[in-house]
Amino acid sequence: MRSLSRSAPAGTTMSAGTSGRLFRRDRPPVLALADGRYRTVGYRVATAVIVAEAGMGGVWDLARIPFVTDVVTHLGYPRYFLVLLGVWKIPAAIVLAAPRLPLCKEWAYAGTFFVYTGAIASHLITGYARSEVAVLSAMTLLTVTSWALRPADRCLPGRQPLRMRS
Question: What's the CA gap between 158 and 135, in Å, rounded?
Fold first, then answer.
């Protein structure tokens, strides 16, 4: 009989069969592929939505379209605040879509997170367009999802993206 002190390789489980002997059940390779595929799809979808919103939002902020100007003034911010947001949203969208630049990506993720959570707080405090809070919360969740699921080559050196435990 095998000693229980031996550790099983990663991705396997040890269980006792009907004869009392220990055997390894390896994880089916199909599930291993599916996990990576779902992770990639989740990352790409979340990132595409964030990049599209940041890019279009930046253009709209710089163009000062009436809808965006009305929201910003009702929230109590000056109109020039749109220029500040627009100038930083466009590079954030470009960096998040680019394949490298891990340090810039960290800053872009932080910036988009602060924009969405700040907008949530502004809407809740002023009471203006509270229905937007759900959309802003979804965008915040997508930002965190994109950050958590990003591939290892898009992380800072020495840091790995979050991994799911099985």
Answer: 34
Is residue 30 pLDDT above 50, yes or no? no
What are the angstrom distances between the C-alpha of 144 and each of 7, 8, 98, 121, 141?
34, 33, 18, 17, 5
C-alpha atoms less than 13 angstroms from C-alpha of 6 in its C-beta half-sphere: 12
SS3 of residue 128 by DSSP: coil
Of residues 29 and 128, the one with the higher pLDDT is 128
d(CA 76, CA 118): 13
Q: How many CA atoms lie within 13 A of 96 on its CB side?
A: 33
SS3 content of the chain, % helix, strand, coil (to 5): 65, 5, 30
Q: How far is the first Cα of the chain from the last one, in angstroms, to the nearest whole number?
A: 27
Q: Which residues, 6+ apart, have CB-to-CB distance to 112 below 8 Å?
A: 50, 54, 89, 92, 96, 139, 143
Query: At 66, phi and psi to the nearest 5?
Result: -55, -40
